[in-house]
Amino acid sequence: MKRLLLDTSAYFAFMRGHREAGYAIADAEEVYLNVVVVGELFEGFLHGRKREQNRAEFDRFVMSPRVQFDSDFTRVPQVITRLLS
Q1: What is the mean predicted confidence (pLDDT) over 59-82?
Q2: Are the beta carbons of 38 and 10 closer than 8 angstroms?
Q3: What is the pTM of this model?
Q4: Which of 66, 76, 63 is nearest to 37 (CA)?
Q5: Domain limits of the chain?
């Protein structure tokens, strides 16, 4: 089983149509996002010009049964600190 832990840069590359990112995601049976990546993405959405569009695209992406969230919540304090700084 091929698993892929997606980072923020890879997500944006995929959403921008980067071929290699698309191949990697298409080839994976399971795609994971962790809380740090989700926090970084949401921070970017909040400050971007396409807030609603980016959030809607993210929501569609995570609706895939192949996309799962990494449940390592030990990093939550780091994300909150970064978002509030």
Answers
A1: 75
A2: no
A3: 0.78
A4: 76
A5: 3-84
SS3 85: coil
Answer yes or no: are the C-beta atoms of 28 and 3 closer than 8 Å: yes
Q: Which helix (H) or strand (E) holds 4?
A: strand 3-6
Q: Is 69 helix (H, G, I), strand (E, B) or coil?
A: strand
The domain covering 3-84 belongs, at the CATH homologous superfamily level, to 5'-nuclease (3.40.50.1010)
For residue range 11-60, list pLDDT tens digits in order.
Answer: 999 999 999 999 999 999 999 898 889 989 999 998 999 999 999 999 99
In angstroms, the CA 57 to CA 49 distance is 14
Residue that the structure tokens 């799962």 belong to: 68
